[in-house]
Structure prediction request, 467 residues.
Amino acid sequence: MRHSFLFLLLLNVVLCFAQNKKAPITLDFENEELTVIFDSLSAKTGYFFSYNSDLLPPGNRFTISTKNILIDQFLSQLLVGTGLRYSFFKEQIIINYESPPPVAKRKKLFNISGNVLDQDGEPLIGVNVFLDGTTIGSSTGSEGEYFIDKIPPGNYNLVFSFIGYENGIYNLTENNGGSRIQDHKMILTISELDEIAVVSDRISNEYEDWPLYFTLFKNDLFGTSENARQCTISNPEVINFVFDEQSNKLTAYTSGPLTIVNKAMAYEITYFLESFERKGSDLRYRGQMKFQNNLELTNNTKHAVKSERKRSYLGSWNHFKKSLLSNGLRKDGFRVYETRSIDKVNYKKLKELHEGDILVFKGDHWELEFENYLLVVYNKEKESINFLLDGQSASAIYGDYIDDNKMLKRAPGKQISLLGLLHGPVRIDLNGQVVDKFAISTYGYWSWERLANLVPINYDPKFDNFR
Prediction:
């Protein structure tokens, strides 16, 4: 009888353990090491993590927040861009480093297909499926199926987005062409706006404040460049704001994706805002973007749009990253220096750095590392007059030229930007994208140029044919 009781007790423990592993989990980590996150996952799920600590990215910390998500989906989001892969073996989760295949000399296009289901296993129609920051994407059909073809080789974040559901994000790398299959199960989201209504009751009763917050939001999102004047948000009604007077923090939330029209560069951008916070002069926002070309253009307009796209790209942060990774900084017009301060900079007195001084290839990614601040000069285009009139952006490097009216009295010169690393070395994936967008602070010209001057990451000025 005692043996039967013991067997039933063990069976009950095993069943509870298995149920715990398959249950959705809610996790919230801010600036934590992977080891801490793995320990927390073990406590919540019962899985034991097996890994070689030498494989974990040294010094990197991770910020991730999820609600009611399965552990495999959580790990897929957590390990994006790290080069680490996970696998299940009995009661273990094994973490390994996966070296990428060698880059083919010829660019072989590939395609992605799959099916998208809801929590009950039913197909979802009309789900947005796209490669973040590109013009490449599709949507699901009547059976929840999707197909995206003619994708250039590289490293991407594949995004699944649908109103009322958590965004799904998968990192994928492909250099040898062929076909990839990625299915996804959407998880219902808990509306954050229900929680906001409690803390923002004062604001919701003062509707006249909303236009002010919206103006601040647009200026932060678009910037103050010439192109910013031609950017509009077609559905501002999806935006809600919370302003905390004590902390002087403005937070924005959306009930759906923003539809942004950039007439200067003929892009319609679907922007899935994840977070937006402005606290004093500290601005942080992030989201996923899907670009779409506006094809209703005359030949003369197309020429002007192509010129503006190229002008916006040259000298930009994305152009700098591409030049850095291809060992072409000087050829493309960039000069790089290290400086201890962002105030009163004079690059003529600084020692010039080269690609190998700040960039190291790690097999499936690059690491950008430098001391203090990186000062970047682009000498093939002068500063915009609007930049010089924007006292907040220009004062970071031209403080001595600001008068009492916060106007900058200086003739346009070379474009100067500065970079600062917040948490040590920064990972850049094979597609030239920074894995943790909050790991770098920009000052000067790059800080001033924002979404209004942004082109897709798959943009190439040599092949900009509006497709």
